[in-house]
Specification:
With 241 residues, this protein is of the alpha/beta class. It contains eleven helices and eight strands.
Length: 241
Amino acid sequence: MTKLSVNINKLATLRNARGHNRPDILQAARDIERFGAEGITVHPRPDERHIRYQDVRDLKAVVTTELNVEGNPTPDFLDLVREVRPEQVTLVPDAPDAITSNAGWDVIKHQDYLRDVVAELKALGCRVSIFLDPEVALVEAAVTTGTDRIELYTEAYARQYLADREQAVAPYRAASARAGQLGLGVNAGHDLDLDNLAWLQQQLPELAEVSIGHALVCDAIYLGLENTVQLYKRQLSGRNS
């Protein structure tokens, strides 16, 4: 079954809006795990506008499933990873001022650089995933970096899903299948929600994990956090009909 990792960045955004500790990020992570999620994802950015570097340190001490830390491997980010040693590091080439991640790596262009970063992270004991657009050529280049997994950037899939879900998923199916052939694990994330998640999971038998934050937190406002986590898990279980 595909695992659900919940991105709690948006909960940190809400906390930071008032400058106190409501919601309590650590308690939220504990509860999300208790509600059935198999992982917690965070994406600290240089301006710490949502998840702070200290949050990552604190979360490492309380997360009992899997801590997935996403980010651009800048010197500060790599220093944090060396200190925390999360179970998974997802490398994302976002600019410091990006509102959210908006592109995968050009692995062909940055192959040597990524190979060095991946080797260091794996030496720390972290599983490594590289954020990619759904292109077979990029998957083939990614395998030469030594990465354990790729994470398919699913914004294009989500945007096209309602108009033509078969056409939307086709490049992801091809990229995922090629990754499987090459021995790479497959993750996915970005704009996945209760409408489009089940179809993606059904079409990508290689899919090991999804990372979902914004839509899940928005749904939780209306449906409650426990119920929402379980609804997302249901989409991944094949029991969503």
